[in-house]
Structure formats: structure tokens, C-alpha cells
Specification:
- This protein is an alpha/beta fold.
- It contains eleven helices and nine strands.
- Strand 2, helix 4 (74-77) and strand 3 form a beta-alpha-beta unit.
């Protein structure tokens, strides 16, 4: 978000942020004219869902390129290019690598567009080194196996949290009451291994809860074989002000929970004991 809020405007690139759950607003803004439509679905960290095909139709009508961040879904669960996107990006550090031991990014899409990016990176750097490239390629060999487990476990955990009295809200597109569930069901094969939830309390309660978790690593990353958790306030969105997080719809009591491949019953017991301590 900081790229769009601070960095691009500093280079005099015009940016318009839209409420991603309001497709009509997005279509209206696209129709006014733009060069690029950048979307992320599911979004980080509140897992809103964007109708990729619908937005791509609007973008093509305006002559814009569509770039989709598919990190949360992974190629196993969702393929934006098949729905009309021109370019797809992944933080390969996350699900593609899957072991929290390499950092990198991947780009896929139309050959002529990828070539432009490749030539720019050739001259300006930085390029992915051989070691992390190898680790990411290794991780991708087990991507489908890992995601099958993570999809199933995340849904079970989301359903459990939704029924807990100390949890005020759960954000996961696999839940039938999620506002984007119908769209997600249409364009995704699985709902992903990441969910987020708000505790019925303030940030002090969040800190107390996280300290009680025994099987979870407290970290800013996601998509690993090990379960990772943390509040966006101090991890993914730490560089934003509280007002900026509020503008993006990110509660201060929100916890992002990236499900690993551990036994799901163990993770549920861990959540139960941590919540019971509040």
C-alpha cells in the first residue's frame, strides 16, 4: 500500500485507490481513463475478493493493462491470466517457496510485457541470485501438496474461530457469510491458507493472545510449512499510520494467521488454550 500512497505519487504517477469490495466504483474510475489497473485478490490482510473477470473487462474497455497480485491464492487456487489479467505477480517468498528460507518475486504473463520488465531489471537490478532461485524452485515441487493441506486446515480453523465468543470477526473467503464468497467460489479452486480475525478487545488483548500461542511462529511472513501469525499493525502494515490502516479497513485488533501443514487438531487446541487465557 505504501507504494501507492507515497512512492508512486512522489514520481508524479497519478494513483487512485478504490474500495475493492465496490466493483461499481472501480469500474467508474477505470472508465475515466488509466494505463494500469493493479489488483490483489484475496487482499492482504482482510481477504476481500475482487471479481477478476469483471474488472479485466472494464480495464480492456479503457485500454488499460491489468496486473494481479496472486500471492495469497497461489497458482494452485487461482489463475488470473485465464480470467483476463495481463500480468500476474507473486511474492515467491511466501507460498511458492513455502519454507521461509528464501526471498524473491515472480512475474508471469504476456511475453511482450514480461520482456519489458526483464530488460528493465537487467539494466537496473536487482536480479534474483542462484541460491534463492534454487530454493524457490525446490519449494514449488511440493506446492500443490502443501496447499491442499493448508486450504483444508484454514477453512476448519476459520469455522472454529467464527463460533468463538472472544472473536469478533473472521475474514476468510471460504466462509459462506464472507461478502466475496460467491465470487471466490466462481474464480478459485481453493480458498487459501491465510485467514485473519479480530479479537473482541483492544491491541493489548492481541499482544496477550499472541504470547500464549505455543505452536505458532510470530512473524511478518506467510505461506510457510509452519504456521505464522502476527498483527498487521506491527508486521505487514507497520509502515502505515493508524489513520492509513483505518482508511484501508484494517482494524487495530486484527491478527493475520497463515496456516502451515501441521496437524489441524493441534493448531485448534493451541488456539483454544490461547483464547481461554484472555
Amino acid at each position: 500500500s505504501k507504494i501507492f500512497l507515497d512512492f508512486l505519487p512522489a514520481y508524479r504517477v497519478g494513483v487512485k485507490l478504490c474500495e475493492t469490495s465496490n466493483h461499481e466504483e472501480m469500474e467508474e474510475e477505470i472508465a475515466k481513463g488509466c494505463d494500469v489497473v493493479y489488483i490483489e485478490t484475496p487482499t492482504n490482510p482482510t481477504l476481500k475478493i475482487i471479481d477478476i473477470r469483471r474488472i479485466c473487462v472494464a480495464a480492456k474497455r479503457a485500454g488499460a493493462i491489468v496486473i494481479a497480485d496472486n500471492t495469497f491464492a497461489s497458482p494452485i487456487n487461482q489463475n488470473p491470466i485465464q480470467l483476463g489479467a495481463d500480468l500476474v505477480i507473486h511474492s515467491a517468498t511466501k507460498f511458492l517457496c513455502g519454507h521461509s528460507d528464501a526471498m524473491g518475486g515472480l512475474l508471469a504473463g504476456k511475453k511482450e510485457l514480461v520482456k519489458k520488465v526483464f530488460q528493465f531489471r537487467e539494466i537496473n537490478g536487482a536480479s534474483l541470485q542462484a541460491d534463492p532461485a534454487y530454493l524457490i524452485a525446490r519449494g514449488m515441487k511440493t506446492l500443490e501438496l502443501r496447499l491442499e493441506r493448508q486450504n483444508a486446515s484454514a477453512l476448519k480453523i476459520a469455522q472454529y474461530l467464527q463460533s468463538h465468543s472472544k472473536v469478533s470477526e473472521v475474514f476468510y473467503p471460504g466462509l459462506e457469510n464472507h461478502p466475496g464468497h460467491a465470487i471466490a467460489k466462481e474464480q478459485m479452486r481453493g480458498f487459501g491458507g491465510v485467514l485473519s480475525f479480530s479479537l473482541d478487545g483492544n491491541y493489548e488483548m492481541v499482544k496477550k493472545f499472541l504470547k500464549k500461542l505455543e505452536l505458532v511462529h510470530l512473524a511478518a511472513s506467510l505461506g510457510s510449512v509452519g504456521t505464522l501469525a502476527g498483527p498487521p499493525r506491527t508486521t505487514s502494515h507497520v509502515e502505515l499510520t493508524e489513520a492509513q490502516r483505518q482508511m484501508l479497513g484494517i482494524p487495530e485488533s486484527l491478527i493475520r494467521y497463515s496456516v502451515g501443514i501441521e496437524n489441524v487438531e493441534d493448531l485448534l487446541e493451541d488456539l483454544e488454550q490461547a483464547l481461554a487465557a484472555l
